[in-house]
């Protein structure tokens, strides 16, 4: 499995979001199974097991690699309602406040543009390293 994480800090609270690619099927209309885990101070707060089509996944990766795509404030949605993503640029700190939302539960994270760009490149690499469906075994 390929794991990528995004780390933020809000005062004394550490926030981590891990994207774990359980498998990836190449092809425009295929996709990936992804486990997203939210941590606060190294404790798991929530885990989401979801599927994203490659169209949706690569749009998200493109957004991260080129963050913020000429929008200082904005959002990213996709039709399955998992991981709605909003951001607000904080001029005084030169950081972005990200709010990831899963079914009404909010996960705020503050980080820099450069960290988001690195995260996008890491996601792209993780997709390439993700196991294929034939080698996937559900460990739960």
Automatic annotation (TrEMBL):
This is Uncharacterized protein. It comes from Paenibacillus marchantiophytorum. The lineage of its organism: Bacteria, Bacillati, Bacillota, Bacilli, Bacillales.
